[in-house]
């Protein structure tokens, strides 16, 4: 007989790096979750933009169970069929020539930054080492990636940090042009800053970064951990902007809930990695790549990608209706199904409070800092579920305004 599990056990047994909700979800289907008491929730969080096909999608479940009957893990002394199939799908669908698989977005960004430094060393061993990143960015929790992220609250307690990382204002091309030099080995940027408040990059900003990186022989890295795999209505956001990076990182939605990450790049950069230069124990394992292959097949279709833009309109139209009545948001922004609603001046700093009220009403959403409510639901969420979730949000908004 299994022991009863309670929320209190988190406080007793878990390292306190999270502050989870008081309820424990135990079952999911589509865009719905149920907790231990049987209460239902509409899921607008998607596991932080991970569950791109909702919970327990039947085709993804079938891919998982079929591969589980074959082989789960081999180690990097061997290759496997699912990883090679997935690599080809990603290469065929993007600018990339080569793929490196890992387990998370942080690991993908770690690999990208290491590769950029390695490429810089090959050109000027002691001088071409600077990485330009941006204020309010988020690239992961390893020491290297948290240093590249432009949020000191996540990095300052772990000093000394890796050197030669410069942070500049996001969407300020002039600042980059004034600073970039022959010492710069890479520029890393999110096409939409997710954790930083759901702030899209200006098209001219990304185009300018591309031109500057080409001019100064620096590697342009797009962190598409949150924006990738259909989230914006394109398979990857760079395709919407028409700006091609040298390296792209992807994770979250790639596995549809199963942990996997990847770094995509071109041959001229990939060749700098050789056996022993970089690696991972679990990356590219058959179980993860079989699942991700099916997820990619399902998402990379005109029907699903086109449906993301339609759902964006459903969301924003109703959010604007709610806001017209309650004036709780100063701006509703984002692309596709990565949407941010910034709190108005009257409710500044109360995004978390609204998020908690929404959970009480049976809606799971996200925050992106203290002032932004964030939505990243399933890419195939039905219109009726969007309507029900936003009905619940409206009740939470009414309570906040009371």
UniProtKB/TrEMBL annotation:
EC number annotated for this UniProt entry: 2.6.1.11, 2.6.1.17
Catalytic activity: N(2)-acetyl-L-ornithine + 2-oxoglutarate = N-acetyl-L-glutamate 5-semialdehyde + L-glutamate; N-succinyl-(2S,6S)-2,6-diaminopimelate + 2-oxoglutarate = (S)-2-succinylamino-6-oxoheptanedioate + L-glutamate
Enzyme class at the top of the EC tree: transferase
Cleaved signal peptide residues: none
Record keywords, A-Z: Amino-acid biosynthesis, Aminotransferase, Arginine biosynthesis, Cytoplasm, Lysine biosynthesis, Pyridoxal phosphate, Transferase
Necessary cofactors: pyridoxal 5'-phosphate
UniProt xrefs under Gene3D superfamilies: Aspartate Aminotransferase, domain 1 (3.90.1150.10), Type I PLP-dependent aspartate aminotransferase-like (Major domain) (3.40.640.10)
Predominant cellular place of this UniProt entry's protein: cytoplasm
Entry binding sites for N(2)-acetyl-L-ornithine: 141, 280
Keyword Amino-acid biosynthesis: yes
Record localization: Cytoplasm
GO biological process: L-arginine biosynthetic process; lysine biosynthetic process via diaminopimelate
A single GO molecular function term of this UniProt record: pyridoxal phosphate binding
GO CC entries: cytoplasm
Positions where N6-(pyridoxal phosphate)lysine occurs in the chain: 252
A Pfam family hit: Aminotran_3
Residues annotated for pyridoxal 5'-phosphate binding in this entry: 105-106, 138, 223-226, 281
Keyword Glycosyltransferase tagged: no
Top-level division of the source organism's lineage: Bacteria
Cofactor note: Binds 1 pyridoxal phosphate per subunit.
Annotated function: Involved in both the arginine and lysine biosynthetic pathways.
Family to which this protein belongs: Belongs to the class-III pyridoxal-phosphate-dependent aminotransferase family. ArgD subfamily.
SUBUNIT field: Homodimer.
Name of the protein in its database record: Acetylornithine/succinyldiaminopimelate aminotransferase
Species per Swiss-Prot/TrEMBL record: Rouxiella silvae
Upper classification of the organism: Bacteria, Pseudomonadati, Pseudomonadota, Gammaproteobacteria, Enterobacterales
